[in-house]
């Protein structure tokens, strides 16, 4: 059995993070199993709860979400506040499409492995319905709520070329400009390998 490989995570400023990613033919896509396995390995090594393929420099519509680990770490009261009767998920999303967003919204802090050492308050729908292929390449249409839905939306944004920074108000974006440039320049440390844009191009 092939051993998993840790992949460098693309840093803010790399153009792949702004690409709208393409669907794949999951049955014919070369190295799909290895890519997904390496993404899980990379995500956990970086201490993340989600990871999208463009974050490892592969601009296709694949992302991972693990909200179960977060659920297990929370106290009962927090679970009631952040989860809606579920216990979180560990799932692969391939060729995903959000087909419905609930009217209720809520705001919570989000960070991103591609934007280390920063976080911001983001308003998102409490519930979503999404169609996708799971890790077994089976078609799914499911509705998710609360923190699980937030994690899915965050990763889904990545395959649409959107970052959580885009939801921040102009004042907050301006305040983060210098820190973001430091990340793009490789001057903000992360405890995992990162891939930066080619400054010579």
From TrEMBL:
It holds the Pfam family Pep_deformylase. Keywords: Hydrolase, Iron, Metal-binding, Protein biosynthesis. GO terms for molecular function: metal ion binding; peptide deformylase activity. Binds 1 Fe(2+) ion. Its EC number is 3.5.1.88. Its cofactor is Fe(2+). Fe cation binds at residues 112, 154, 158. The active site is at 155. It catalyses: N-terminal N-formyl-L-methionyl-[peptide] + H2O = N-terminal L-methionyl-[peptide] + formate. Coiled coil: none annotated. InterPro entries: Peptide_deformylase, Peptide_deformylase_sf. It is an enzyme of class 3 (hydrolase). It comes from the Bacteria. GO terms for biological process: translation. Gene3D superfamilies: Peptide deformylase. SUPFAM superfamilies: Peptide deformylase (SSF56420). CDD domains: Pep_deformylase. HAMAP family: Pep_deformylase. Belongs to the polypeptide deformylase family. Removes the formyl group from the N-terminal Met of newly synthesized proteins. Requires at least a dipeptide for an efficient rate of reaction. N-terminal L-methionine is a prerequisite for activity but the enzyme has broad specificity at other positions. This is Peptide deformylase. It comes from Taibaiella chishuiensis.
């Amino acid at each position: 059995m092939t051993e998993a490989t840790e992949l460098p995570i693309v840093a803010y400023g790399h153009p792949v993070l702004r690409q709208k990613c393409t669907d794949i033919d999951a049955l014919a896509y070369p190295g799909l199993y290895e890519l997904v396995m390496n993404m899980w390995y990379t995500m956990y090594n970086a201490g993340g709860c989600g990871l999208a393929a463009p974050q490892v420099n592969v601009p296709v519509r694949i992302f991972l979400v693990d909200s179960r680990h977060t659920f297990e770490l929370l106290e009962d009261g927090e679970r009631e506040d952040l989860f809606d009767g579920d216990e979180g998920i560990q799932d692969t999303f391939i060729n995903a499409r959000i087909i419905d967003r609930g009217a209720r919204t809520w705001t919570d802090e989000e960070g991103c492995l591609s934007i280390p050492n920063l976080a911001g308050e983001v308003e998102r729908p409490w519930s979503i319905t999404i169609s996708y292929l799971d890790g077994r390449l089976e078609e799914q249409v499911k509705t998710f709520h609360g923190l699980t839905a937030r994690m899915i939306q965050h990763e889904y944004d990545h395959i649409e070329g959107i970052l959580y920074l885009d939801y921040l108000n102009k004042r907050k974006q301006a305040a983060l400009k210098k820190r973001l440039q430091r990340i793009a320049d490789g001057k903000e440390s992360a405890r995992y390998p990162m891939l930066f844009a080619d400054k010579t191009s």
